[in-house]
């Protein structure tokens, strides 16, 4: 059976010649049977050839675990041909998850002591590839002895093995500290590169090692200066750059040694300036060295002029034809914009040009950086550029661009009129992509600018007449027309072009919104309320409005139906009533008092949606008119019963005092809303290295099973928290919806917090448990935290 076995070359040729997968499997199964038989017979002369064929089969993805013990036998063999294949098989077939790998520890130790360079190299390669923590602890003294061997070949492999050992077992750092100082004097580039890598690993994992190696900063500076200024042999030159791999590794080590250390940073400042000005940027090798130089300058305590030089280098990267280099430059500038804002501002025109890159990743990075560059001095120009980009940007970027423009306008708006114009243009261009709180924010802004009411209603009416597909725009326009419709017909606004509007045109436009298939139920609610308000704002016959209310009194949507029935009752049943509202000097009809203009309200959080806001608006409007007699009050109670329907457990409101001091019953907020509950206390759930996470809770009165949780992340440390992602999970009996966060960066030094809204529906009112997972980058480290929040206040679910 063994005699009919194929040679390795013949096996490869036969497998490649198989026309189907079934034929390939047949060849491999047949040959594996021969290999098993050879292992059982214990043929010492051909075992390494059989194992070589088995390794090829393993590389094709077929099972080869039955060759593990044969690897151990070949490693223990005195023949070099057997050891070579045995060690290769151990690296491919064994790993630290299998106990069998511990059986080769003694064989590796013996081979390291042999003194034969080729065998020592095989043993070191295997140890660095699959050595477990136990093997590293046992063999560390042997590797430490080989670090000072005369042979450069062995020393280089021993250094690389030491790097693997430090990564596996950081507490072994004390063993390798003394040899590293001697190895830094090596002239062999491979050994020097490995030594610098080893010192880097030691400094990242041991504060004592970091303090120890700060003494060698002058030596590292001298080595790097020699590479930059005098060059090296052509053997180590890449595209005219002297050993860029060694330069990059030395720069990375200098960055670690100079971080938060004034003396070391001062020592390397001149060198970094030389590297930044003398490195060729026409090839990628030079760009790699320059980029690492920029990172080092920004991470140490460098001089201000040197930091400006680093930002200028990144600015030149933005003009490079290579997309990868431009992406790296944009990402780096985004990290620097908080600490070196003025230096990055100089490259603003180039950054804006990158918005129109065809590559989506480049365009997204340019958008993030452009939004970060907006301030009070350039808000007009930057907003104009971003709005131009919003009109033609890809759909997956529109939400980020629209939200970014709205936030920038809110923070840096020079005037209220400019702020309103900016939001209107965003709503007109990409209204369906804006955040949920954009409608409420614009309504609050317009309501607070009394001098711009006429201007705003005219602008919104014109925009609505052109396009009714953008739902947020339609909602704001409907609210504004209903609130200030009288100003629309007056035609007294001097800030806009003359606009002659008739009452019938306004009513027809709102009816068009109601009839449109694109209108959401919330949008129709805004339009219905606007029509009802116009019945008191505009003079003339209201039969057309009454007819619309009657039609929607039988609407399938319960919210619209209830609203139309209530409005219709004001027309038909209570239109004859008169009240004397507080603050007025005359008697007003009940409908006019109920639908009086809204006062300026406090801006709510992002968790307040349009329906809740609209119902609160009606509730506030309905608190201003008295009923004169108990007979009329009883009629209102009949209306309550009509809308609520019969119920055995229904609690009727107490009889009304007929005195004029009592005001209008909550006609449009049926049934009467209870007193708002006490606020739920906030809860701090996470704190680490200056990053703090707080939860605030709101339970909307109209939906007791809904809990709105606002996650607020703040950062008091000295470095930005970037790529911040908060994910949440709840038990299966709950329903969870995560809203988009306000950003993915939490600025340092107590900058603006990052917020995210969680909507949790708890139909069974069960105790709430919340599991959070946080992933972010902080001080150059990627962090992931998973924890469970079990101490939520009882008010969040009871």
Automatic annotation (TrEMBL):
Its main location: membrane. It comes from the Eukaryota. GO terms for cellular component: AP-1 adaptor complex. It is found in: Cytoplasmic vesicle membrane; Endomembrane system; Golgi apparatus. The keyword Glycosyltransferase does not apply. GO terms for biological process: intracellular protein transport; vesicle-mediated transport. It is a peripheral membrane protein. It holds the Pfam family Adaptin_N. InterPro entries: Adaptor_Complx_Large_Subunit, AP1_complex_gsu, ARM-like, ARM-type_fold, Clathrin/coatomer_adapt-like_N, Clathrin_a/b/g-adaptin_app_Ig, Clathrin_app_Ig-like_sf, GAE_dom. Keywords: Cytoplasmic vesicle, Golgi apparatus, Membrane, Protein transport, Transport. The keyword Protein transport applies. Belongs to the adaptor complexes large subunit family. This is AP-1 complex subunit gamma. It comes from Bison bison bison.
């Amino acid at each position: 059976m063994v005699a009919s076995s194929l040679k390795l070359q013949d096996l490869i040729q036969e497998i490649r010649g198989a026309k189907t997968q079934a034929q390939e499997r047949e060849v491999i199964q047949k040959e594996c049977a021969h290999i098993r038989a050879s292992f059982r017979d214990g043929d010492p002369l051909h075992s390494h050839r059989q194992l070589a064929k088995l390794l090829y089969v393993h590389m094709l993805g077929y099972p080869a675990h039955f060759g593990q013990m044969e690897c151990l036998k070949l490693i223990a063999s005195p023949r070099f041909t057997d050891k070579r294949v045995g060690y290769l098989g151990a690296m491919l077939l064994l790993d630290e998850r299998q106990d069998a790998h511990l059986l080769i520890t003694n064989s590796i130790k013996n081979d390291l002591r042999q003194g034969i360079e080729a065998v020592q190299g095989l043993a070191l390669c295997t140890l660095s590839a699959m050595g477990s923590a136990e093997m590293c602890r046992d063999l560390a003294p042997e590797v430490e002895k080989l670090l000072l061997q005369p042979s450069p070949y062995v020393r280089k492999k021993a250094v690389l093995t030491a790097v693997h050992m430090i990564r596996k077992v950081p507490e072994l750092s004390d063993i390798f500290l003394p040899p590293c100082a001697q190895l830094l004097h090596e002239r062999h580039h491979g050994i020097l590169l490995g030594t610098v890598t080893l010192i880097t690993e030691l400094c990242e994992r041991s504060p004592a090692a970091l303090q120890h190696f700060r003494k060698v900063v002058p030596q590292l500076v001298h080595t790097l200066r020699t590479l930059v200024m005098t060059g090296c042999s052509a053997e180590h030159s890449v595209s005219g750059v002297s050993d860029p791999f060694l330069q990059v590794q030395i720069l990375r080590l200098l960055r670690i040694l100079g971080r938060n250390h004034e003396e070391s940073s001062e020592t390397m400042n001149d060198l970094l300036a030389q590297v930044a000005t003398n490195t060729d940027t026409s090839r990628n090798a030079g760009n790699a060295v320059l980029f690492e130089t920029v990172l080092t300058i920004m991470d140490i305590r460098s001089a201000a002029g040197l930091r400006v030089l680093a930002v200028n280098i990144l600015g030149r990267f933005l003009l490079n034809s290579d997309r990868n280099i431009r992406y790296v430059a944009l990402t780096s500038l985004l990290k620097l914009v908080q600490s070196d804002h003025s230096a990055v501002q100089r490259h603003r025109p180039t950054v804006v040009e990158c918005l129109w890159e065809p590559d989506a990743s480049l365009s997204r990075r340019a958008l993030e950086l452009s939004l970060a560059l907006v301030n009070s001095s350039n808000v007009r120009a930057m907003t104009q550029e971003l709005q131009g980009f919003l009109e033609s940007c890809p759909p997956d970027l529109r939400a980020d661009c629209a939200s970014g423009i709205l936030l920038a306008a809110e923070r840096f708006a020079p005037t209220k009129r400019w702020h309103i114009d900016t939001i209107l243009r965003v709503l007109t261009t990409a209204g369906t992509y804006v955040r949920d709180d954009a409608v409420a924010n614009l309504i609050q802004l317009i309501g607070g600018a009394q001098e711009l009411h006429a201007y705003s209603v005219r602008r919104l009416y014109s925009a609505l007449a052109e396009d009714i597909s953008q739902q947020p725009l339609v909602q704001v326009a409907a609210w504004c027309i209903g609130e200030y419709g009288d100003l629309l017909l007056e035609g007294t606004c001097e800030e806009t072009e003359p606009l002659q509007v008739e009452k019938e045109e306004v009513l027809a436009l709102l009816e068009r919104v109601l009839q449109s298939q694109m209108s959401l139920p919330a949008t129709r609610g805004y339009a219905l309320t606007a029509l009802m308000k116009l019945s008191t704002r505009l003079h003339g016959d209201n039969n057309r409005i009454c007819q619309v209310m009657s039609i929607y009194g039988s609407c399938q949507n319960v919210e619209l139906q209830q609203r139309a029935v209530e409005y219709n009752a004001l027309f038909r049943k209570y239109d004859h009533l008169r009240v004397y509202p507080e603050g007025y000097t005359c008697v007003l009809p009940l409908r006019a008092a109920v639908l009086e203009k809204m006062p300026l309200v406090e801006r709510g959080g992002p968790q307040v949606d349009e329906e809740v806001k609209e119902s609160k608006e009606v509730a506030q409007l309905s608190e201003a008119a008295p009923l004169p007699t108990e007979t009329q009050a009883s009629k209102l109670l009949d209306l309550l019963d009509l809308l609520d329907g019969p119920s055995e457990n229904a609690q009727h409101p107490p009889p009304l005092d007929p005195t004029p001091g009592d005001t209008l019953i909550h006609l449009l907020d049926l049934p009467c809303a209870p007193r708002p509950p006490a606020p739920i206390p906030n809860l701090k759930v996470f704190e680490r290295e200056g990053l703090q996470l707080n939860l605030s809770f709101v339970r909307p009165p109209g939906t007791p099973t809904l809990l709105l949780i606002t996650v607020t992340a703040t950062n008091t440390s000295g470095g930005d928290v970037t790529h911040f992602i908060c994910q949440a999970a709840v038990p299966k009996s709950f329903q969870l919806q995560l809203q988009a966060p306000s950003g993915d960066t939490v600025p340092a030094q107590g900058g603006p917090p990052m917020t995210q809204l969680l909507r949790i529906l708890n139909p069974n009112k069960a105790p709430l448990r919340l599991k959070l997972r946080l992933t972010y980058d902080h001080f150059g480290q990627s962090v992931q935290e998973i924890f469970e929040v079990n101490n939520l206040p009882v008010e969040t679910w009871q």
